[in-house]
Amino acid sequence: MPQTVTWFVPGRVELLGKHTDYAGGRSLLAAVDRGHTVAARAREDRLLRVTSAIARETIEIDLDAPEPAERMGAGHWSGYVRTVVDRLRANFPGHSRGADIQVESDLPLAAGMSSSSALVVGLALAFGELCGMQDAPAFREVVTDRERLAEYLGCVENGQSYGSLAGHRGVGTFGGSEDHVAMLCGRADEMVQYAFCPVRSEASVPFPEDRAIVMAVSGVQAEKTGSALERYNRVSLSARDIVGIWNERTGRRDATLGDIVTGSSGAADELRGMIDPGTYLMGRLVQFLEESERIIPAASDALATGDLATFGSLVDESQQLAEEGLGNQTPETVALQRLARELGADAASAFGAGFGGSVWAMVPAAHADSFAVEWLDRYADAFPVPGRAATWLVTRPGPPAHRVEG
């Protein structure tokens, strides 16, 4: 086993696929060129020390001590560390060792670019390799490629079981594996289209050479704690509620909305007829069906053929469905999306869990910086308080998670 190992794990941008992955839908994704660098060095004792350069904190875990009944406050980064360590030790007994782990990052936190999932992936890759978990028979049997690894790490985060690898306490969010797929399976200079439950690659689309992605971080943190966690999980659990209605009415045992839709050609219309009009569940169902089944395939085709006008119109529809169907947008993210389009962006949308976070805009690369400055200036005029905390960055689709040598 190695004595030292370092991994870089990128953040991700979700062009399309708002809350579709865990419901068995599809997403259009990319890794970005910023992320976490996780460096691990073995220790002689059984102490695990993890230091976050961003949080400026170090936490310690005695690998031989009983698991604590409670963790630090909800949302504290140590909860993600404990979740990964506890799950890996439970699934692969005998494969753990003391280590010093340092986490460095240039990824904005709570900005919708999945800094928390990147931490989960980075810790699992670095600590797992240092402990030789990839050599455990249970690992080799279940985690056969990067797609399966992404699925498994999604289950590490949400606490669910994965095949023979029993579930364990997660971080409290009922999300899927979209973030983990983008981080592990993204491709430089390409968007990747994936379907979920199970994870399967559907397409890769070259990103236009003369375009860039400008991300505006709204200054409203996309937290998944407290009341925000409750609102986030409402979006997630409503998909399960719809599946429950379907199974009760039909006697079937479909696991996801995606399973229902692909079961027969008329299933989507039949399902619409079971949900009361004007309810949140109907809005959630319509959003899923339109986003996953119509908008994403059409948007991928438009991007592949260079039809940026059609691509932009489809992204606008996705944004509107998030506002009306998911109800997960804030006035700030709505304003950023509208301002980007008014300023001439080819396409723009909020992304991630919602309830704050970031908005992406596709613009000509040659003018990306000037676009960003005007975009954030206009935003600060409308929202002075979050506008003071707002930031921006320019990126393109980057490579997936990889080992850092030397």
Automatic annotation (TrEMBL):
Domain GHMP kinase C-terminal as annotated: residue spans: 301-379
A UniProt-annotated Pfam family: GHMP_kinases_N
Alphabetically ordered keywords of this record: ATP-binding, Carbohydrate metabolism, Galactose metabolism, Kinase, Nucleotide-binding, Transferase
InterPro entries cross-referenced by the UniProt entry: Galactokinase, GalKase_N, GHMP_kinase_C_dom, GHMP_kinase_C_sf, GHMP_kinase_N_dom, GHMP_knse_ATP-bd_CS, Mevalonate/galactokinase, Ribosomal_Su5_D2-typ_SF
GO molecular function per UniProt: ATP binding; galactokinase activity
GO biological process, any: galactose metabolic process
Domain GHMP kinase N-terminal: 80-134
Gene Ontology cellular component list: cytosol
Domain of life: Bacteria
Domain Galactokinase N-terminal: 5-41
Annotated PROSITE patterns: GHMP_KINASES_ATP (PS00627)
Membership in a protein family: Belongs to the GHMP kinase family. GalK subfamily.
Protein's name in the database: Galactokinase
Species assigned in the record: Brachybacterium endophyticum
